[in-house]
Amino acid sequence: MSCLTLFGKKREFIQRLENIRPRLFRLAWSWCHQRDLADDLVQETLTRALRSERQLKEIERFDAWIFRILVNTWRNYLSRTRVMENIDDYVLAEEQTPESLHARYQLTAFVQAAVESLPQGQRQVLTLIDLEGLSYAEVAGVLEIPIGTVMSRLCRARKALAEKLFRQTAEDEYSTNLLRRVK
User: Fold this and answer.
1) Which of 83, 86, 153, 179 could cysteine-pair with 125, CB 3.0–4.6 Å?
2) Whether the Cβ atoms of residue 41 and residue 73 lie closer than 8 Å to each other
3) 124 with 30: CB under 8 angstroms?
4) Residue 72's CB: how many other CB atoms inside 10 A?
5) Dihedral over Cα of 24, 125, 54, 77: its sign
């Protein structure tokens, strides 16, 4: 193989790493909810990917391969620390009115808390499929679990989130009706 071919492939590989970095960060942040930790996890993932790029046999499987490295990096972190941090405050972009900002913040906080309350396996499957757009087969490969387990975890996660959202909506309607009666 010529130097130009190697250089071209290396450049393509680095470009792919640069392009996927925001997705890796978003996924890492969805698991740990700490900006600095998510940055560290992504940095470690990219470093490991650069060190082991020859292990990637099919470029079409790049996304699944890099997400697998991120999952392993996250698991290594958890095994070292054994401590999960609480959700940090989530800063939202400015809205046009204080009311809409408050409503959006409440909704975001509620959804974050609902997702965070899911068991880790369900949370990982949900974020890989619904946030990152991986297929069931890719998630099964990334997490090293059967595809049936991916489907059942996703189903349970979505059902739990729907129930929590329904329950919260019902509570909000009850509170609103109660306030209307008091006035």
Assistant:
1) 153
2) yes
3) no
4) 15
5) positive
